[in-house]
């Protein structure tokens, strides 16, 4: 047998309903904030991610699924959704439309990472992007959408951490300060951090290696280097969050793993997601669209990891784990009643009622056992006598009571009790 590739997962029919709930909650919440869905290709020209996500990131340097297609073009399976949405926005001339532009997506993404619980090579994201507003209100709306989504999933133990990584000009001073700080530690730090020192020293704060983490302990904080405008922006975002009652802590060590961010960055974490505690991450990225097009379009957004959210909801929200079975199982006692059950089931489905009947030629007892296992709320039993009377014996599986219901009233009877 050929096994599935490492770091991928099958979603089996027995667990698909959990995905549907997550996806429905994502759609409903995003649409309540007036975000509309966008769908972009699974693969893009490699250059889009190299330029968009950034060539000092682990994603671009180590984790991309890149290959030459039969025409010899280098293409890459998307490692995230932001760069593709930005490209689609520019390419389809949406920059000339009404602002703000607000879009959400439910996508699979691909990163060649070392798989572990909550870290996969193919994973799924719910993301949202808001273009055209540089106002703190836009940051606050993106964070509020993320927060509402997680609350709508019934999650109470997720924590929001925010930081500001400033703009290009205040970051210049900060990078100089970081270099001065890290220089004496360089010989003890990993090869990646030595490369980051030259290209993007802020990324050194994000290194997972123990020896590098030790070195970062006393590093200068970006927040102390913010220029006047960036400091005022961050203060305004915080004020809006405070007034909206969205709890957060300021964590100066959040720098995020992608190059495009500026000013506000944020992460929602949960201890229930194991070692991979970040369930959602995002921030402002005011220069990405300008880099890709020619017009400056401020932007802010986030993405949540669906597999991590499934782990967290399993730990935190028992109600969401209950699967709704079919409404009614129609059991037939003999050949003729089995046929009647089939036809009744067919009619009920056309009237919007989920039901099932026997396809296995099973005994009545075995049919009941199956109906019970599959979570049917009612079992309608049909035999010779029921056919003669034109009524089924409908058993309520929760109450263990039963009632005679004429065939022609079955749809109404079940609809009223759905
Ligand atoms: P990110 O932090 O790279 O940001 O990913 C967002 C979320 O995707 C993470 O917090 C995590 O829950 C999930 N995730 C990432 N990698 C994996 C993996 N290998 N396995 C399972 N889950 C994973 C972005 O992707 C940005 N595009 C977010 C954004 C949108 N920023 C602005 N707009």
How does this model look, in words?
By secondary structure, the protein is an alpha+beta fold. Helix content is 39%, strand content 21%. It contains 15 helices and 16 strands. The strands form 3 sheets. The protein has an 8-stranded mixed β-sheet. It has a 5-stranded mixed β-sheet with strand order 13-12-14-15-16, with helices on both faces. It has a 3-stranded antiparallel β-sheet with strand order 2-4-3. Strand 9 and strand 10 form a beta hairpin. Helix 1 packs antiparallel against helix 5 and helix 5 packs parallel to helix 9. The two termini are 42 Å apart. Histidyl-adenosine monophosphate binds next to strand 6, strand 10, strand 11 and helix 11.
